[in-house]
Amino acid sequence: xxxxxxxxxxxxxxxxxxxxxxxxxxxxxxxxxxxxxxxxxxxxxxxxxxxxxxxxxxxxxxxxxxxxxxxxxxxxxxxxxxxxxxxxxxxxxxxxxxxxxxxxxxxxxxxxxxxxxxxxxxxxxxxxxxxxxxxxxxxxxxxxxxxxxxxxxxxxxxxxxxxxxxxxxxxxxxxxxxxxxxxxxxxxxxxxxxxxxxxxxxxxxxxxxxxxxxxxxxxxxxxxxxxxxxxxxxxxxxxxxxxxxxxxxxxxxxxxxxxxxxxxxxxxxxxxxxxxxxxxxxxxxxxxxxxxxxxxxxxxxxxxxxxxxxxxxxxxxxxxxxxxxxxxxxxxxxxxxxxxxxxxxxxxxxxxxxxxxxxxxxxxxxxxxxxxxxxxxxxxxxxxxxxxxxxxxxxxxxxxxxxxxxxxxxxxx
Amino acid sequence: xxxxxxxxxxxxxxxxxxxxxxxxxxxxxxxxxxxxxxxxxxxxxxxxxxxxxxxxxxxxxxxxxxxxxxxxxxxxxxxxxxxxxxxxxxxxxxxxxxxxxxxxxxxxxxxxxxxxxxxxxxxxxxxxxxxxxxxxxxxxxxxxxxxxxxxxxxxxxxxxxxxxxxxxxxxxxxxxxxxxxxxxxxxxxxxxxxxxxxxxxxxxxxxxxxxxxxxxxxxxxxxxxxxxxxxxxxxxxxxxxxxxxxxxxxxxxxxxxxxxxxxxxxx
Lengths: 413, 267
Prior knowledge:
A: Formate dehydrogenase/DMSO reductase fold; 15 helices; globular; B: alpha+beta; Alpha-Beta Plaits; two-stranded antiparallel sheet
């Protein structure tokens, strides 16, 4: 409102207040709430049991080995961490870009982001060879290590998101003033965080499938896909159970955000693979991933490209499916499947291909040199990964139930 | 005695000096002879006069700090490795007790050093060599370790501090030589001088426990005659430095510019 505008009449003030949403807890029956707690809690407990099982016996009970040292837990952990950054995008769009459609969902967006990060970190930490030494990871820093920087980025993300959420929820004037700075800080931090996570692989000079700076922007784009897809599923679920009906506007916004970033991820993947195909030293690993016929080839073409990218794009852009919530739901679920496939191909496919010591030679040894390694995820690993996801969902369910995160009505224009 | 050996080496090389009237094929043969005789005498010195060599690896009192005046390294001549490095691998295994962990699958076993055989696709020439931690000057494993548990000692030996390793395995992926292993199970009856631990990463220590006592690494002692030499790369008077200065050597993945402490001939 400009300085010269006439003062509002009492009726106008009341009307303005009425048009703003009031934030409420998730109004859901106890039966559904406790059922959700029981389901997610059970999966978390199974993951805890898997953690103690692995810690007690050692990692020989997992499918990981000295050829593939990062397995299924890392696929889940990195997916959740990257998705966390993307889920906070809804908040950013409302705060930094002043989009009113997104503003009512800012609180939920930040809580989903924090929950995803906590779930991802839990998986990462519980898979450590010496998880009991977590304190060492927090007190001993090698600042040349991108991994150490990521520890700072993840804990910093949680702190900033807490402050951001607080600035949304506390209505005191001085706290409200912190809303914009916290939003901007979160926006920047998210970029740095996903850049850092992509660089975990980008900085690995030893492996031909990694060792490229394009992994940083690829992870940034992927974070929007994973995060938007996950947030969409949460939002649709909440709306179908107790929350006000979702307006078409917010659904379309989510739909197009998802589509744009799926296309961007495809673009970065295309550039990455074409660059690799141009460099002779990377022909071997590219041939293995793209046409090797192994599990990763199927996951790449069928999982990531077809089901995870092209089918969601059809579901989003096909005119006959426009305004269909189930199409959006399907696109989001498939995008998550595509994301998990993408990370499996990247993390595990990159390790399955042997380290090249002697180019232009056939190599063999007693330690897998010159051979494609093998990896099969074990049950404890799957339990850890799913447990992290369940932990995220558990946190979200509890948070929306006890905190006033959801708007009582929709400003869907 | 060291002086005598060096003089003998130089005299031997002087005899093989190339004359102006040599044919190209003769030149190659003479180069080869010159190269091999230099290496042969060096290796003979290692084999025949261990007392002399041992003095190159001086014992360090326990309370004396390691300095960067020394940089330990080794040179392996694959042409002289009649077994391709099998005895070196076996000696390492015996010294450190890795490789037979009862529960781990073959792919999960630790392997501090392995025999790698490679055949050039064009020439079909086959070479076998032992590959272990190359003790890089700028080691990727040290760079990526989040806690600093992977570290390089002042004398160039790359080690893992098993008390601060959290078992994230990032260094295992980061090593271009695949020289690191993760221990997948609880272990018993370990070698007291080389403790190993479940859930942490390990690799060749260059037998640091022996070096600090003035001994050579176990693999060097077990290597076939004339096949491997160990010493101080910073000391221009050490045998390894003289041989390297004279004939040079190759690094595996030299394109990565890691300035490895382990060098090879014949790869």
